[in-house]
Amino acid sequence: MAARHIDAAAIADYQRDGAVCIRGAFKDWVGTIAAGIERNMQNRSATASDIANGKGSFFDDYCNWERIPEFVDVVRNSPAAELAAAAMQSRSAQFFHDHVLVKEPGTQKPTPWHQDIPYYFVDGSQTVSFWIPIDPVKEATLRLIAGSHKWDKMILPVRWLDDSNFYAGEGDYLPVPDPDKDPSLKVLEWEMEPGDAILFDFRTAHGARGNPTAARRRALSLRWVGDDARYVERPGRTSPPYPGHDMKPGQKLREDWFPVVFQS
Predict the structure, then answer these.
(1) 3-class SS string, the chain
(2) pLDDT tops 90 at residue 176
(3) What proportion of the chain, given as a percentage, has pLDDT over 90?
(4) N or C of the chain: less Cβ packing under 10 Å?
(5) What is the CA radius of gyration of the chain?
(6) Residue ranges of domains in the chain
(7) pLDDT confidence of residue 112
């Protein structure tokens, strides 16, 4: 099942490697995304963080799309939902949440290697996260470990502020990898232009270098789930937490909170 901006070869790459770069899929949406990021940064939520490090800082905030008109437009009207369904090989694309990530010039601290799914209360083989930069990206691009979405265990989730463990039960997880020292791990990374997008499975291990350049690195992430995604309980507080959701293990995510945007 192909769609606009993605062909059968790219879908096969996604299924095999857990990640693929789609060129120009959001080139007509760069201005809208930029305005949404600026609105979000000027109107931060309680979940926002701004980590100063050296000369730079790293801003992130999530779960704001319903109060940011530009993000509503992107979620509802851009190619994202159809692309998500095609990459996941799912009949539907259900929106999970948005995430704004801004690395200011001179930010030294890298984004640590991690997988998203241990932090989430959702599981399934049909998941996809979009990473859409609105600035040219070279040194500060996303880095992903090919095939890590098929690992038997997940990487130990840690808190980014202090690298402490997110949950107890360290033995249930893999230690955080260092693919720069392990030649058996294949790293995927792409230089990107505004409006390009990396699509990756929630289970795909990824990280990013700091931003040593003199330019900002602004990106919007959009997270989607497909037909087989179900609510699961984790051994602690998830991120995002979504208090009061009232879902039970094995249920599909409630559609009044997590809308189905595409259905074939």
Answers:
(1) CCECCECHHHHHHHHHHCEEEECCCCHHHHHHHHHHHHHHHHCCCCCCEEEEEECEEEEEEECCHHHCHHHHHHHHHCCHHHHHHHHHCCCEEEEEEEEEEEECCCECCCEEEECCHHHCCEECCCEEEEEEECCCECCCCEEEECCHHHCCCCECCECCCCCCECCCCHHHCECCCCCCCCCCCCEEECCECCCCEEEECCCCCEEECCECCCCCEEEEEEEEECCCCEECCCCCCCCCCCCCCCCCCCCCCCCCCCCEEEEC
(2) no
(3) 77
(4) C
(5) 17
(6) 8-263
(7) 86
Q: How far apart are CA 100 and CA 42, in angstroms?
A: 12
Per residue in 113-157, pLDDT (tens digit) is 999 999 999 999 999 999 999 999 998 899 999 999 999 999 888
State how far the Cα of 4 lies from the Cα of 262, in Å rounded to an integer. 13
Cα 196 from chain centroid (whole Å): 14
Give pTM, 2 decimals.
Answer: 0.93
Query: What distances in angstroms separate CA 231 from CA 87, 102, 203, one per listed residue?
Result: 21, 29, 15
Mean pLDDT of 209-230: 95
Q: Which two tokens stand for residue 228?
A: 């087989």
